[in-house]
Amino acid sequence: MSVPLLDVNAQNIPLESELQAAFTRVLQHGRFIMGPEMEVFEKEIAEMVGVKHALAVSSGTDALLLALMALDIGPGDEVLCPAFTFFATAGAVSRLGAIPVFTDICPICFNLDVNDARAKITEKTKAIIPVHLFGQSADMDAILALAEEKGLRVIEDGAQAIGAEYKGRGCGSMGDFGAYSFFPSKNLGGFGDGGMLVTNDDALAEFARVLRVHGSKPKYYHHYVGGNFRMDTLQCALLSVKVKRYAEYTAQRQANAAHYTEALSKLPGVVQADPSHCKCLSSQDAWLAGQEARIVLPVGYAHNTHIWNQYTLRVIGAGQRDGLRDYLQKAGIGCEIYYPLTLDQQPCFADLPEASLSGCEVSHRMAQEVISLPIYGELTEAQRLEVIAGIASWLSA
Ligand SMILES: *Cc1c(COP(=O)(O)O)cnc(C)c1O
């Protein structure tokens, strides 16, 4: 039996008749751009994540871009973001002529290292973009305190963390802006591209709304240069069908993660990351060596509600991760490396100033060690057992 990394049909096909009804409704009223379903969907998301304003936009990438534009980030400005994330986090910064400054990450939760961010602040630093990677919140108390102290704007990249929580607060709801993605592989996966920009600030919300439609207000009068950042009415209507079931989808992912952790931690050479342990790489290395660890399982901090966009292992030792990946692939078990290259290592950023690119050792190591397993909600028990058996047989091979 082969196990896919993700099976969107397993979630979507059971909703076929409801999705078709939503499609028919939009077809018949014909308001394909900013139709009534957009406002309904925006309200549903605002309520779910606990924010005042939500703007449906064309993608998670455009949500980030629009946030930066609304905060007037541009040429010469520096923006801190983690080196270990999806490209869009920094791509949006670069497209505006601003300079991404890459910070290192924590080897336990894979999120931005706030001490490193602090050390990289200059008088040009305007904003920080914490990413809630793999579905778990970054260290928001420390990030918000740093931002307050240094006068930085905070844009939360919640593309992988819609509905995740930090100390009871919704990921994406704590900064000046939060950005979400409905790319099909995200936890609230759509039927094409889509995203959401959220904020609690009335003035920022209003400005972002104007920028979403070419900076036009009133229509055909432009005080600003915006873009076309709208999400289709149809996409909103379809996603409203799924949003009603989102808590259930999340619970299934959480159950899968718990099952993996329970079963895998019984295998020799497998340990779970220890959040109480010192996070510096050398003491991590010593701790793992002491236990003869070959695989480190992910963990959610107790103050976080992790929504498991990915269940990501660390495979210790040069070449070991690639060995496991090849082994699983041969066995028909889906897996993926998020991410094989850190952002400071990307060719398109090679010309950034040295200060943008330095000091990302933990990120570099993680890019060599990580591998993500199938974790989607509809994964069956038999499939889960197949994944576990695959890892067990690689360990004993
Ligand atoms: C997916 C993703 C994005 C971009 O979202 P799109 O909707 O694909 O444009 C941005 N940041 C992170 C961390 C992501 O995972």
TrEMBL record:
GO terms for biological process: polysaccharide biosynthetic process. The modification N6-(pyridoxal phosphate)lysine is found at K186. Keywords: Pyridoxal phosphate. The active site is at K186. Signal peptide: none annotated. InterPro entries: DegT/StrS_aminotransferase, PyrdxlP-dep_Trfase, PyrdxlP-dep_Trfase_major, PyrdxlP-dep_Trfase_small. GO terms for molecular function: pyridoxal phosphate binding; transaminase activity. Belongs to the DegT/DnrJ/EryC1 family. This is dTDP-4-amino-4,6-dideoxygalactose transaminase. It comes from Prosthecobacter fusiformis.
